[in-house]
Every structure is written in structure tokens, then in C-alpha cells.
Design goal:
This protein is an alpha+beta fold. 19% of the residues lie in helices and 44% in strands. The protein has two domains: 110 residues, 2,3-Dihydroxybiphenyl 1,2-Dioxygenase, domain 1; 119 residues, 2,3-Dihydroxybiphenyl 1,2-Dioxygenase, domain 1, CATH 3.10.180.10. The radius of gyration is 17 Å and the shape is globular. InterPro entries: Anthracycline_SecMetBiosynth, Glyas_Bleomycin-R_OHBP_Dase, Glyoxalase_6, VOC_core.
Length: 258
Amino acid sequence: MRVRGYPAGSPCWADVSTPDPVASRTFYGGLFGWTWRDASVDGYVNFYLGDQAVAGLRAVPESAPTGWMPYVATDDADATIALVRDNGGSVLSGPAELSDAARIAVVADAAGAAFGVWQRLRFPGAQVANEFGSVCWSELATGDPDGAKTFYGNVFGWSDRPAETADGTPYTEWYREDRTLAGMIETGPLFPAGVPAHWTVMVLVEDCAESAGRALELGGKVQLTPTDIGVGMYAQLIDPQGAAFRVLELVPELVASL
């Protein structure tokens, strides 16, 4: 499905930071069939699914952390940054113009989980959704769920409703104006000791196990093997440069409803 814009407060884009753009392009191209175009003047590359932009790639120094990061749409990046600070968060970089595409900033919530703020200039964000190979979900893992509910509610107007995973673990779904946006899980026994608060980006795939196997063939790692979550299967993968992400396979009836 082609997407032409995003309401403020909606996840709208995701990108991966990597010290080796060539290797990352090869990995994600082989895994998801993504293509890319020549880098812009600031070294930023868009991945494409068919002819539609699906995600981004940012080159960083070898000493910088690698990883995937979701962005949330805003009508005013500076005003959103002020709300982030007012609610105990911090600004890690920006705001700055990403060429003529958007005015962006990288911020962290009150528990330290980093995410991006995206104010559209020319480019609204991902042009495709609900198709295999597109980013489909973002999930916050945090040791302070109540604090996160307050933070994201105040900054983006998100509401929360309780849910649970297939094994009964408490889960939170975030929504705005009846549109489900993202999820949250509390760090606990399922996570390594001391894991910091963080966001994870998920990509919709047709076959979770096949995607995990393909990632291994391409030089990646499987951090969490394909796991049944009731509505489908997911696995956590790590690309050859160390960036973690998940692949999500949904049951056929959910795919048909997208």
C-alpha cells in the first residue's frame, strides 16, 4: 500500500546507522530485496521496495554505535524537542535539515531510549506500508513502563491500552485517535540483565524462519530464533555491522486484513 503522508504523532520512518554502507546495502538488499540510490550530499541513502522509499541508511564512524531507529512525525520539530526536554528527555543531535527532505532530531526519552523526530519538508517518510519488506512495527523495551506512558502521552498525545503476549507477558499498545501506533514491553526475565531502554524496528516478511536463515547466509546473526507470538512469528536478527532488528511474519488472516 502506497503512503502519501503521516499525521503528527505517527511513526513515519526508520533508518539504520552503519560504519560500512556498502556492506549494509548488500545485506539488506539480499534479505528484503531492497534497492538503493546514490547517496545525497550528506551521505544519507534511501532504501526502496520497488520504486517506493521504505527506510534509510546513515553512514557513521567506526567508533559510533550502530542500530535501527524509528522516527515519529511532527508538525514542528522544535516544539516537540521542547516537550521532550520538559518531560525529562534529552536531545542527542539536531535539530537539523536532512537535505531538503525533513527537519529531524535524535532524542531520548526519560529512560534513555533513543528515537527520531521527523518534520516533513519535501519527504513525508516511508512511501509503502503493509507489504512484505516494509517496516511494520516499532516496540519500546523499558524498565519504567509507567514513566514511558507519561512521557509519550505528553510529547505525542499517545494513549495506552493493556494487552499481553502469547505467553501472558504484560504488553502495552499505544494508539492515537483510535489508530494503533507502536508497542511497549517491560524489560525483565526475557531480557539480558542490565539491558538499557531501547526501541526495536520490525520488518514484515512472508516467512520468518526463511528470513532468519537468509540473514545467516548473508553474514548476520540470529539473536532470538523464530518464536510463536500468537498472531504470527518473529525473530530478532543482527546485521553484520551489529544493528539489531526483527522480522515479523503474521498469520494469513491478519495479512489479508492489512
